[in-house]
Structures are given as C-alpha cells and as structure tokens.
Design brief:
The complex is a heterodimer of chains A (325) and B (302).
Chain A (H helix, E strand, L loop, with lengths): L2 H9 L10 H42 L1 H5 L3 E2 L4 E2 L2 H32 L2 H16 L2 H27 L17 H25 L3 H9 L4 H30 L2 H6 L17 H8 L9 H30 L4
Antiparallel strand pairs in A: 1-2
Helix pairs in contact in A: 2-12, 4-7, 4-9, 5-7, 6-7, 7-9, 8-9, 9-12, 11-12
Chain B lengths: L1 H5 L15 H37 L5 H5 L15 H33 L3 H15 L2 H15 L5 H25 L3 H9 L4 H11 L1 H17 L2 H6 L17 H10 L3 H31 L7
Classes of the chains: A mainly alpha (325), B mainly alpha (302).
C-alpha cells in the first residue's frame, strides 16, 4: 500500500462515515479516549494492587515480627526465619552476576559500537532466542550438564587449589547441586537482558561524540571507553541492576539445580534455598499450618519490594538516557 | 605595520608533544575486540550446547504415544501414556492469556500513540509497564493465588489464564509500543491535518501495526508457553485432558518438572522428551515471529 492510498482511506466511507456529523465523531473520539484512559490507570493500579494484596496477606505474620527474626525455618514449630532464604537468594544472585556482568557488558558494547546492520540482523535473533528459552529448559540443562560438570571436574579442581586457602571455595557438598550450579544457569539467563539494555543505552549516546572522538584520532575502543565513561555509565549500571533483579526472582531453573537446603550457604558449592524456590515448593501445604501461608506471602512481598525498588531505579535512569521521560 | 606582517605566523606544531603510542593502542583495540567476540561466541556456544543437550537426551524417549495420549494410571512409575494433557493445557493457557492480554494491551498502546503522544502521563505508563516486565512470575503467581482465595476460586484454567495474562501484558504492550514507534510521524500529522479524530487515527495505527502485532502476539504466546512459576499455583496440575475453564489444567514446563522429580529413570527420560517438545515449540514460534515480521511487512506505509 502506498502512502497516498492509505491516506485516501481516511477520507473514504469506511474510515470516516460521511453521514455522521462532526459532533458525533467528536463524541465518539472523547468516549473512546476516556475508556482507553481508564485502562492506563488500571496498569498503574495493578502495581499498587499487587503490593497491597501481598501486604494484606502477610499482615498476620508482620504482627508477630519475632517469628520472622529467628534464624531457623521450622513451620511446624511456628518458626519462620526467612534469613537463610534471603542469604541463599543473595548468594545465588551474586555468583550469577559475578559470572555474567563483564561478558554481557562487553557483548552489549560490541553490539552497539562494532556491528554492521547485517551482522546485527544475525546476532539479534540469537540473543532473542536466549531470552525465549523457557526457564525449565535452562534448569534441565543445568541438571544434565552443569551439575555433573561441577561434581566431577570443577568441584575437585577448585577445592584442591583455592579451597585450601579460602573456606569460600571449599567443596562441602559432593552432589554438585548448589550455589555455583544455580549461578551458572542464572548467568546465562540474565546475559541477554544485560546485553540488550547495554546496547540500547550505548546507542542513545550522541552520535557527535563518536564522530568527534574518531576525528581526533582515537581508536574505536578508545571512543567506546570515552562514551561509556561520559554518557552511558549510569545506563550500564542500570543494566546490571536489572540483571540482578531478574536473577533474584528466577524460580524454576534455580529450584532444579540449587539443592534446596534451608541453611545459609558458606561456600559456593553449598546447597542453598532461595526465596522463589521456597514459595514454589511449599505452596501446596501452606494452608494446613497456621501462619504458614502468611510467611510465604511475606517472602513474595519481600521479593516484590526488592525487585520493584531495583527496577524503578534502573528504569528511571534508562528512560532518562534514552529520552523517553 | 610592515614588520608585523613579515613576522612569522605562529603555527600549531605538527609534531605532537607526546608520542602517540600507536602500537600499544592498536594492540589494546585488538585485544578488546577479540575479547568481545569471544564473549559473543561463548553465548552462542552456550545456546547451541543447551539445544544440543536437550535434543541429544530427549530424542530417545520421544514417541507418538507420548505426544497423543494423556498419562495412564501408573505413568509416574514408568507406565504407559504421554503428555498430551500438558501440551493441550499449555496451548490453551498461553493462547487464552495472550488473547486476554491483547484486549488490554492494544487499546493501551493505541492510546499512548494516538492520544497521549509525548505527555508526562505516557512516560509514566511506559515506566510502569517496564517495571511490571521486571517483576518475577512467581510474584504474579502469589498475587493470583491471593486473589483466587479472596474470590473463592479453585486452581483452574480460568485463574491460570488470568494470572498468565498479567505476566504477558507488559511484554505485549511494550513490543507493540516499539512497533508503533516505527510508524512514520508524517502519517499521524497528515491524518490530523485531514481532519481525522484521534479515535480514527487509532484505527489507522492499528492497521499500520498489523505485521508487528502478529510478531508481538507470537512472542507473548511463546513466553506464555514457557512460563511455569505463575501457573504453578493458579492452574494447578492434573493428569486429565483439560475439561473446562473451572477445572485445573496441566502445563508443559510443570510436566517436565514433575517427571524429572520422579525417582525412576524411565520417567526422567520422559522429562527430557517433554523438554524437547517444549523447546521445539518455542523454536518454531520464535522463528515464525522473525520470518513473519519480514513477510507481512509489505502492506505497511513506510
């Protein structure tokens, strides 16, 4: 369809009925606008409603805060210490970020500064595919590939070298299911997100900056460094924060490889029990014990609040940089 | 005067004050370029490895029975049957959720482009959508579960579809938003100049976005098929074929998960095969999405 054709559509009977008076068209316009505006408010309301509902459901346990403060998880005895789970979540996420951040940023920079349109047309679908693979498939890959690798190769090797000096690297758990396995799987899952955001932010840096630097005789890498330092650094950090919050909330893939033992991990080979796994594993029995469901909803609320804070901060920075706000 | 003119003109020295260290800088450039390529290659290799591992282990247990029959009584002990219940359930859940999310997302995005344009309000809605995108699906699941309890619903297809539609909504809305942003702004300007109202322009924009719309729907559908944490609470799990909107349904990711947790190797083999089915579905969906964006683009005003 050419532009002329599509614009004549507007003046044809189908698009703008000739029999209808201007007043009725205006009325229709305003009515549709009002209806659609309601939907906008509903989106914002949805966010508030989620927070409100989860807070309401976790209110019973918030009233007895000492139950949450204990460091053990014994629902039958009425002790709902969330500390080991928070520690587990932090450990898993930290390992994932340590593995993923630098390669992902380098890839994002490459996608933004070094690729031609044609190469990008090949690379972009590849990264999209990495986003699209379901988390259960990542988890299965973890079970079939990462866990045996850690059990048989990486575990003993690291234990023999670093583990003798630092308790942090000691192989305490011969099964292979643990923080490191979950970290590896999560690193791969957050990788495309960080790449995409870094690329977007780098692309929104002013083109003149690039041209000036290149004209002054800087190499491409020096140009890139300068752009990152002066224009894109907050955005790149926002990308990392987004990756962090994605890793923090990932459920099924982590649950399959992390070992699910409710203790705070002391080594990267220890089994851990992150918050999302806690919620997913116990939902079926939570109605039978008093306060149990409330404690689980508290865990969900905690997840929501953490992820919400990180996301709002990161997105504000990104929207500023890409001039959407 | 004359001696001023005859003075030598001060010139910038052509020779740099410091050496340029060209070799070292080129080396740095080459090292980092190699590093970046290596990272990208690593990601591609990881993706290839995931697919290879899933195919390698999954093909063995795949059979026609697996695809066409629901589980029989002793399925989790290694008996006969298949995962047809999970395949049907996943397709129902994802398509229902995509349809429900579309009913919300399409007017939302059209409003942003035809009415709100570049207002502050539009910026805040976009920000909210982005934030919603980042919320983990387990939180949506917990939220849906709380709502179900408030409304007195049991785990059912309906509850699953509604929860999943919330997960899919920001994905659909932001993808559509990006598609509409590609529309030439002259189109809107000319339309308004010809006297079209904003509601009429929304209709034109919808037609303009049609190919992108198809892609966005496919992507949302793919995400819906793959998402498990939100339907875990809300849609439940059953060994029967889906039987109505008020009864629980199975889904493919959960089928993989439950079969993998069974202690029998024969059942675990089936988990690999189920994961293969899921992966192939996702591959086909994203491939179609990418191809359709090129194919259907010929009716778009550029």
């Amino acid at each position: 369809m050419t532009r002329e054709e599509s614009l004549t559509l507007l003046t044809q009977a189908g698009a703008v009925q000739s029999g209808v008076t201007m007043q009725r068209r205006r009325l229709f316009d305003v009515a549709v606008g009002a209806g659609m505006r309601m939907l906008q408010w509903l989106v914002i309301l949805l966010l508030l409603m989620m927070t409100a509902t989860l807070s309401m459901r976790s209110l019973p346990i918030l009233r007895q805060l000492e139950l949450l403060r204990s460091h053990v998880w014994q629902p039958m005895a009425g002790r709902f210490g969330l500390a080991p789970f928070i520690a587990g979540s932090m450990a898993v996420t930290a390992v994932a970020m340590a593995l993923a951040t630098i390669p992902a940023i380098l890839c994002g920079v490459y996608m933004a500064e070094y690729t031609s349109t044609r190469t990008r047309a090949w690379l972009k679908p590849l990264l999209d595919l990495l986003v699209g693979v379901p988390s259960v498939v990542y988890g299965l890959w973890g079970v079939l590939f990462v866990v045996p690798l850690i059990r048989d190769r990486i575990g003993p090797a690291v234990d023999a070298t670093l583990g003798q000096m630092l308790p942090f690297f000691r192989q305490t758990n011969p099964s292979g299911y643990g923080v490191l396995a979950a970290g590896v799987v999560l690193a791969l899952m957050t990788f495309p997100l960080i790449v995409a955001v870094t690329e977007e932010v780098m692309r929104s840096a002013p083109q003149q900056m690039r041209e000036t630097l290149l004209a002054l005789g800087a190499t491409r890498w020096e140009t890139t460094k300068c752009i990152v330092r002066h224009a894109a650094l907050p955005g790149v950090m926002a990308a990392v924060v987004l990756g962090f919050s994605r890793a923090f909330g990932e459920t099924l893939a982590v649950m399959m490889v992390v070992g699910n033992a409710p203790r705070a991990p002391t080594s990267i080979f220890d089994a851990a029990y992150p918050l999302p796994a806690l919620i997913a594993n116990n939902y079926s029995e939570m109605m039978s014990v008093p306060l149990y469901d409330s404690a689980l909803m508290m865990a969900a609320l905690f997840l929501l609040v953490v992820v919400l804070c990180f996301n709002v901060m990161a997105r504000l920075v990104i929207h500023r940089l890409t001039r959407q706000l | 005067m004359s001696e001023h003119i005859s003075d030598p003109i001060p010139q910038a020295s052509v020779r740099p004050a410091k050496p340029l260290y060209l070799e070292r800088r080129r080396l740095e450039e080459r090292v980092f370029l190699a590093l970046m390529r290596l990272c990208l290659l690593g990601a591609a290799a990881a993706l290839g490895m995931i697919l290879a591992v899933i195919f390698w282990r999954g093909v063995g247990a795949l059979s026609v029975e697996m695809l066409t029959q629901p589980p029989r009584g002793n399925f989790y002990l290694g008996g006969g049957g298949g995962i047809a219940n999970a395949i049907a359930g996943s397709i129902l859940l994802a398509s229902g959720a995509t349809a429900a999310a579309f009913c919300w997302a399409a007017p939302l995005v059209l409003y942003l482009h035809a009415y709100a344009r570049r207002s502050r309000f539009a910026a805040w809605v976009r920000l909210t959508l982005d934030v919603l995108w980042g919320i983990p699906s387990i939180v949506y699941g917990a939220f849906g579960f709380s709502l179900m309890i408030l409304l007195g619903l049991r785990a059912s297809l309906l509850a699953g579809v509604l929860t999943l539609s919330l997960v899919v909504l920001p994905i659909l809305a932001r993808t559509l938003d990006e598609v509409l942003r590609m529309a030439p702004h002259q189109l809107l300007e000319t339309g308004f100049a010809l006297g079209a109202t904003r509601a009429e322009m929304a209709g034109l924009l919808l037609r303009q976005a049609l190919p992108g719309l198809f892609t966005a729907l496919l992507l949302a559908f793919g995400r819906g098929v793959g998402d498990a944490a939100s339907v875990l609470f809300t849609a439940g799990y059953t060994d029967n074929m889906p039987g109505g909107i008020f009864s629980p349904v199975a889904s493919l990711p959960l089928a993989v998960f439950f079969q993998l947790n069974a202690p029998f190797p024969a059942v675990q083999e089936r988990a690999y095969a189920s994961a293969l089915v899921l992966t192939v579905m996702i591959l086909v969906i994203s491939l179609t999405a990418h191809l359709s964006l090129r194919r259907l683009g010929k009716h778009v005003v550029r």
